[in-house]
Amino acid sequence: MPASRPPAIRKNAAPAGRELRDARAELYRQHIMAAAEKIFAEEGFAQSRMQAIAQAAGVSLGTLYQQFEGKDALYREILIARDTEMLDHIAAAAQTHLRSPLRIEQILTLMESHLRFLLEHPDYLRMQLQDGRAWYHSAARPSVAEQRIWERGLAMMRQVFDWGTANGVFVPGSAEDHARLLLAQQQARLAGWVADGMRAAHDAVIALIQADFVRCFCRPEIARRLLTPDGAALAIAVR
């Protein structure tokens, strides 16, 4: 009778097991962050409590602190994750929509992609507005990751303004100043939408902010072509 063979050793079993555990742990953290995002959006950072977040996520307070060392760390991680997701979304849209020769319609379509991301993630938007920080300026005491994200976003906007100015779309001026002014305009309009109960349709909010953009930054001949005679709204649908 032939000797039985030893069982085959699966050399990749341990790494595969670790990958599965890591994937489950990441899903667990994402679940907690989603629950926390809603609490922070409703209550603001100062009024939010870790106990309420744990209850909303369906975990114990001890488990919550095993995943995140404190409220500040949890809050920052949510914003870093969402900010990164948004900038990646904008970068992908830029690859799709921005082509030479550059036209204002391409830039407005890119702006629509950015604004739609914010409008479709209202808890993230409300978190951004709740903390009272001006978007045109970096956080008062940013982490390294937060500062890098801020600089990346501002650099993307400067590039669009530089390109648009070189192509005769925008009035001459500092791309840095234009980028910061645009952020301030968008924050004001979106804050008004949130304060009004987020009732206005997304398309209406986007068109309003696009009209602000055209009035403020485009050369007069381009603004006249795109706006209604009174300059109050876009005269064309941007697609």
TrEMBL record:
MF term (GO), any: DNA-binding transcription factor activity
Top-level taxonomic group: Bacteria
Keyword rRNA-binding listed: no
Family annotation (Pfam families): TetR_N
DNA-binding annotation, residue ranges on this chain: 49-68
Stored Gene3D superfamilies: Homeodomain-like, Tetracycline Repressor, domain 2
Domain HTH tetR-type: 26-86
Keywords of the record: DNA-binding, Transcription, Transcription regulation
Name listed for the protein in its UniProt record: Transcriptional regulator, TetR family
